[in-house]
Structure formats: structure tokens, C-alpha cells
Specification:
Pfam families: Peptidase_M35. The protein has a 4-stranded antiparallel beta sheet with strand order 6-3-9-10, with no helix packed on it. A 4-stranded mixed beta sheet has the order 5-13-14-12. It has a 3-stranded antiparallel beta sheet with strand order 1-2-7. The two termini are 32 Å apart. The protein is of the alpha+beta class. Strand 9 and strand 10 form a beta hairpin. The longest helix is centred in the middle third of the chain and has 27 residues, at 189-215. It has 11 helices and 14 strands. The radius of gyration is 19 Å and the shape is globular. The structure holds zinc ion. Zinc ion (ZN) binds next to strand 5 and helix 8.
């Protein structure tokens, strides 16, 4: 499986989260609002309030409401985005588990406290801005059947001064886990076979998608990436070619592949996750047990495009690594051009669409 790469290389990448505007113009469904409050130093409280008279069951995976160390906020100082030090997950929306939801009653507020210094490198003294925006998939009250639609949310923007020395007193979320994990090459038997097939399919899909990005129909680029100019085409094609290169290399290359939950990122409905700080990709039991190798159904998930999705997150494959700005067709097609070009699932959906002839 993919080779180990020196830790030093990972500092080359920075999170590029300041894509503004984030969403395309259009009608939004936004019954919730998020209020960010600073608790102390670099700890914040994110409180989501249901402004509606209707109860919703929020699918919290991939959102700031989940306890796992995923990218929850836009954190930026005056020069750049703070480097993200957690994990990126790919989610499955099939058979959503009850524990993947949180009910929010009419006018209720749900809150979570987050230590920013565990999720982001706050290694420069000075003023930081913190905000969040995104989409949350949901079910009706007392149901775990997703409606297929996503509600959008925004927050206020917090602005405060950070002491890099104080922030440095907190270990990064992934480092805390890494220190107590003895990592082994854990792909064997059927899992090893599945990973080899998925990497081969990833290479083929990414190569074909790169060709399409370079010289395929403008309409497809506009559908998925909101633009078809030369610069957008070449950015998308370059990233996909880099992904194809890495997927082709099973004994070396920038990423390292794991077939078990080495960093405790496999909660319910999680297929796989990437630690961008280390270019590690881990595949969860759901990836092996619930996904077909390759699907020809439009916008469905399979092992091939899950590998492709995760590969785009790794900054040593192509920098900057992508973010999870939106998951799934409904939310991803509402992103702005910049947010789409930086969104992992958009690449997976694009590659699937070309293969399946959507
Ligand atoms: Zn992802």
C-alpha cells in the first residue's frame, strides 16, 4: 500500500476555506441559524437554533454538530486560512443510523463546545476570524429517512486575538490520537483485493474525468464546477491527473492507505476518512461491506469514487487538498465556483457522472 511520507512535507499545504461567495445565488431553505460565542482563549460555543415551528431530525455527520474532529469552521487570520489539523470523512447516506441524527424542536437550541486549537494550527499571534456556513441534510421529525434536501445555515463572525503560545498548549486532534496508535499495514485478504480493485478503478475514472475536464462539453463543467473557462478546466484536470497518478501507485506515492479504523474516524455512516496533515487515508467497515466496487448509477456511491474523493483531500497528491464544502449532488451543485473546485465530493460526483453517462 501507499508509502509513508516524511511529516515535513505536510506543512506545504494550507486550507483554502475562504471561498466567498460560498453558495450560488438561489433560493435557500434556512430554518436554522448558528450563533458562535467565544468561551475563553480559543474555545468557542456553536449553538444552532431552529427558528421554525417545525421539528427536524438533523443528519449531523459531516457537520459541526458531530463530536469528531472534522473541519467545522472557517478560521482565518489576516493573511491566510488556518491549517486544518483534523480528519475529512466521506459519508454514506444509505440507511442512516439513528445515532447519526439529532432532533431539533421548534425554537430549540443545540450547542457544542469546540477547542479551535485542537482543530486548527493557530501558530501566528494576532486577530483571527471564525465563522461557519454549510448545508445539513435532514429527516422529518421522528424519522431517519432523509428527505434528500439540505437546509443551509450561516453564523455570525467571531473576531478575536489569539496568542500562538497559549494555543500551542493544545495538541492537535489527530496528533492526540496518533500518539497512542501503533500503525500497522492492515490491508489483507478480501480487503486488500478490494483496495487494489478500487485503486485501479480510481485511476481509470480519474484519467477519464481529467480528459473530460480538459476538452469535454462545457455544460458538464458548468453543471459540476460552475464554470468552463480554461483556468477552471486546467485546475480540475490537474488535480484529477494527480489523483490518477497516486491511485496507480500501489507500492509508493504520497498517500498511505489503511483498511481499518486507525484514527477512530469510522462512526455510523462514515465510509472513509483522510488525515490531510499526514496524507493518511483510512477505509471503514462500511466501505468494504456496503459499497459496490463500481456503480453505473448516477450520483451513487461506490468504492472507486470513494477512493477518488479521499485522494483529493491529500495535499501531497495535489495542493491545496480539497475540503468537504458539501456532500452529495443536491448540496454540491449549490456551491459557488471556488467552493466547488475545492470540494472533494464534486470530483467524485463528476467522475461518476461521466462513467455512468448521466
Ligand atoms: Zn471528504
Amino acid at each position: 500500500m501507499k508509502s509513508f511520507v516524511a511529516y515535513a512535507a505536510l506543512f506545504a499545504a494550507s486550507v483554502n476555506a475562504a471561498a466567498i461567495p460560498f453558495w450560488k445565488e438561489g433560493k435557500d431553505f434556512n430554518p436554522i441559524f448558528v450563533t458562535l460565542t467565544r468561551l475563553n482563549d480559543t474555545k468557542v460555543r456553536a449553538a444552532v437554533t431552529n427558528r421554525d415551528d417545525t421539528e427536524y431530525n438533523l443528519f449531523i455527520r459531516g457537520t459541526f454538530l458531530d463530536e469528531v474532529p472534522i473541519n467545522k469552521f472557517h478560521v482565518r487570520n489576516k493573511n491566510s486560512n488556518a491549517r486544518f489539523a483534523g480528519i475529512f470523512q466521506r459519508l454514506s447516506y444509505d440507511n442512516p443510523a439513528p445515532e447519526s441524527f439529532r432532533a431539533i424542536h421548534p425554537h430549540e437550541t443545540l450547542a457544542i463546545e469546540v477547542e479551535l486549537a485542537e482543530l486548527y494550527d493557530l501558530d501566528t499571534d494576532g486577530q483571527y476570524d471564525v465563522s461557519t456556513a454549510g448545508r445539513i441534510y435532514y429527516a422529518e421529525a421522528n424519522s431517519t429517512e432523509l428527505t434528500g434536501k439540505a437546509m443551509s445555515f450561516n453564523s455570525n463572525r467571531l473576531s478575536f486575538s489569539v496568542s500562538a503560545f497559549k494555543a500551542g498548549g493544545h495538541s492537535n486532534a489527530v496528533d492526540k490520537i496518533a500518539k497512542r496508535t501503533n500503525i500497522q499495514n492492515d490491508c489483507s485478504g478480501e480487503n486488500l483485493q478490494a483496495i487494489h480493485t478500487a485503486l485501479d478503478n480510481c485511476a481509470a475514472l480519474a484519467t477519464s474525468a481529467a480528459c473530460n475536464a480538459t476538452s469535454g462539453p462545457a455544460a458538464k463543467m458548468e453543471e459540476y464546477f460552475m464554470a468552463s473557462d480554461e483556468s477552471t478546466r486546467s485546475t480540475v484536470a490537474d488535480r484529477l491527473n494527480a489523483v490518477a497518478d497516486d491511485c496507480r501507485q500501489t507500492a509508493s506515492g504520497p498517500t498511505r492507505t489503511y483498511c481499518s479504523d486507525v484514527y477512530n474516524g469510522c462512526s455510523s455512516n462514515v465510509l472513509a476518512y483522510t488525515l490531510p496533515a499526514y496524507n493518511y487515508i483510512a477505509y471503514c467497515p462500511l466501505f468494504f461491506n456496503n459499497l459496490p466496487a463500481l456503480t453505473n448509477r448516477c450520483h451513487n456511491q461506490d468504492q472507486a469514487t470513494t477512493v477518488l474523493h479521499e485522494e483529493t483531500h491529500a495535499p501531497d497528491v495535489y495542493a491545496p487538498g480539497t475540503l468537504d464544502n458539501a456532500y452529495g449532488y443536491d448540496a454540491a451543485m449549490s456551491l459557488s465556483r471556488d467552493a466547488a473546485v475545492n470540494n472533494a465530493d464534486t470530483y467524485a460526483l463528476f467522475a461518476n457522472a461521466l462513467y455512468a453517462g448521466c
